[in-house]
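Project outcomes to date are best conveyed with an example. Our students and postdoctoral researchers have been running inverse folding experiments weekly, and each run begins with a structure described purely in tokens. The record below, which covers 99 residues, was selected by the lab manager from last quarter's runs and is presented without edits.
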């Protein structure tokens, strides 16, 4: 089910004008593109043609602390906890065996 404001580009522009907003989000572009079967960049270009502008996405910042590993390749945020080991178990045919 599509929201009424995302049914067409014109409906969205009217919705934004009624709320006196000038900034649209990536979620708005996605909803309009799906409802109108149009590519995202065409929807964005047309909305910007009406004087609206796309909201900037906030970048996620990770702060390193004193106890944070400086090389978090194998531990820390984004690291795969079950990476499968170094690989020698599979090469030597011991993969899946206990002990």
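After processing, the design step wrote out the following sequence:
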């Amino acid at each position: 089910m599509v929201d009424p404001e995302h049914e067409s580009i014109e409906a969205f522009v009217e919705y934004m004008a009624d709320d006196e907003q000038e900034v649209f989000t990536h979620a708005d572009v996605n909803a309009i593109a799906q409802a109108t079967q149009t590519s995202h960049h065409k929807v964005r270009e047309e909305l910007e043609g009406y004087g609206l502008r796309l909201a900037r996405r906030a970048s996620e910042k990770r702060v390193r602390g004193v106890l944070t590993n400086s090389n978090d390749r194998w531990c820390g945020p984004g690291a795969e906890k079950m990476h499968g080991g170094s690989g020698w178990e599979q090469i030597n045919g011991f993969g899946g065996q206990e002990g």
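Residues 26-36 form the longest helix (11 residues). Strands lie at 23-24, 53-54. The training component of this project remains on track.
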